[in-house]
């Protein structure tokens, strides 16, 4: 496991973007695992900038997002479909037919999850998976406890998570959907490479717990320590509670 600590959030996000850009440059048919949330906004901003400066070609890239709220459609401004369009897809030449986000309004959610797993397999697996981390230690929306062999499924969100994500819902946690579809921890661990980013003081306790605490399903992010090719990108604030720096 590589842990890289940067002086500030901008530099940390830029490093993450550079790693993704390098992957796309080296393998134009890359399968990218993408994530959402405030942390990724800076990563995508940098990635768009790098892409513009270097004429980076996304036309053959395939993408799979980690998760989506149940009950929100692609046109819903709070959906992760919308987020991806707004923060990345419309700024690069990715073929929208090759982008995938779980469908939170599918008639049969179980079928949707199974089809999502199958689509990842058909694409040859994920080359690099971007990950943020929630206050509960979730990656994707894998709330505690999430088995390390869990697959894409429908999950009930922890109240802490609805609180954390209330910003997009008029500050009201009750308005945050109570359920989401998420890749499982097992699905995430099958990616060839993992890239976890955490920024800011609020993430310091969960980062310390993730990197220095006991590995287990109570903190799904601890699973990344079992992966052979993982990079953790932090700023000084998110790294501030680590015993070893
Ligand atoms: C949501 C997403 C997670 C993400 C987390 C972190 O809960 N489902 O995948 O890691 O947000 O959010 P932020 O970057 O806004 O702190």
Reconstruct the topology from this structure.
Blueprint lengths: L1 E5 L2 H18 L4 E4 L3 H17 L7 E4 L1 E3 L10 H8 L11 E2 L8 H14 L5 E4 L21 E4 L2 H6 L14 E4 L2 H5 L4 E5 L5 H9 L17 E6 L10
Parallel strand pairs: 1-10, 2-3, 2-6, 3-5, 6-9, 9-10
Antiparallel strand pairs: 4-8, 7-8
This protein binds 2-amino-2-deoxy-6-O-phosphono-alpha-D-glucopyranose.
Cα distance, first to last residue?
A: 14 Å
Number of domains: 1
Radius of gyration: 17 Å
Low-confidence segments: none
What fold name goes in the CATH topology slot?
Answer: Rossmann fold
CATH architecture title: 3-Layer(aba) Sandwich
- The overall average pLDDT, rounded, is 98
**Helix segment tally:** 7
Order of adjacent strands in the largest pleated sheet: 1-10-9-6-2-3-5
Order of helices and strands: EHEHEEHEHEEHEHEHE
Q: How much helicity do the residues have?
A: 25-40%
The overall strand count is 10
CATH top-level class: Alpha Beta
Report the structural category.
Answer: alpha/beta
Q: Biggest sheet, open or closed, and with what strands and sense?
A: 7 strands, parallel
Strand content: 15-25%
List keywords for this structure.
single chain; three-stranded antiparallel sheet; 7 helices; globular; Rossmann fold; alpha/beta; 245 residues; identical protein binding; binds 2-amino-2-deoxy-6-O-phosphono-alpha-D-glucopyranose
Characterise this structure.
The active site is at 67 (proton acceptor), 138 (proton acceptor), 143 (for ring-opening step). Keywords: Carbohydrate metabolism, Hydrolase. Its EC number is 3.5.99.6. This protein is of the alpha/beta class. It has one domain (2-202): Rossmann fold (3-Layer(aba) Sandwich). It has helices spanning 9-26, 38-54, 80-87, 109-122, 159-164, 185-189, 204-212; strands at residues 2-6, 31-34, 62-65, 67-69, 99-100, 128-131, 153-156, 179-182, 194-198, 230-235. A 7-stranded parallel β-sheet has the order 1-10-9-6-2-3-5, with helices on one face. A 3-stranded antiparallel β-sheet has the order 4-8-7. The longest helix has 18 residues, at 9-26. The structure holds 2-amino-2-deoxy-6-O-phosphono-alpha-D-glucopyranose. 2-amino-2-deoxy-6-O-phosphono-alpha-D-glucopyranose binds next to helix 2.
């Amino acid at each position: 496991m590589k842990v890289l600590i940067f002086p500030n959030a901008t530099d940390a996000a830029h490093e993450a973007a550079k790693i993704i850009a390098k992957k796309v440059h080296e393998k134009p048919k890359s399968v990218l695992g993408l994530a959402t949330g405030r942390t990724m906004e800076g990563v995508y901003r940098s990635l768009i900038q790098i892409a513009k400066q270097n004429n980076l070609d996304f036309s053959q890239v395939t993408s799979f997002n980690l998760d989506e709220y149940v009950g929100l459609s692609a046109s819903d401004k709070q959906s992760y479909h919308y987020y991806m369009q707004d923060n990345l897809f419309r700024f690069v030449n990715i073929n929208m037919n090759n982008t995938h986000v779980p469908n939170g309004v599918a008639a049969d959610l179980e079928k949707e999850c199974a089809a999502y797993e199958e689509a990842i397999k058909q694409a040859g697996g994920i080359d690099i998976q971007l990950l943020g981390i929630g206050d509960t230690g979730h990656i994707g929306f894998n709330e505690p406890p999430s088995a390390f062999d869990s697959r894409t499924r429908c999950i009930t969100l922890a109240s802490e998570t609805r609180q954390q994500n209330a910003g997009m819902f008029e500050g009201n946690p009750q308005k945050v959907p109570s359920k989401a579809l998420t890749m499982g921890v097992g699905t995430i661990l099958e990616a060839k490479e993992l890239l976890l980013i955490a920024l800011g003081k609020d993430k310091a306790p969960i980062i310390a717990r993730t990197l220095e605490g006991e590995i287990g399903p109570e903190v799904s992010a601890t699973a990344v320590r079992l992966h052979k090719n993982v990079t953790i990108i932090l700023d000084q604030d998110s790294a501030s509670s680590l015993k070893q720096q």
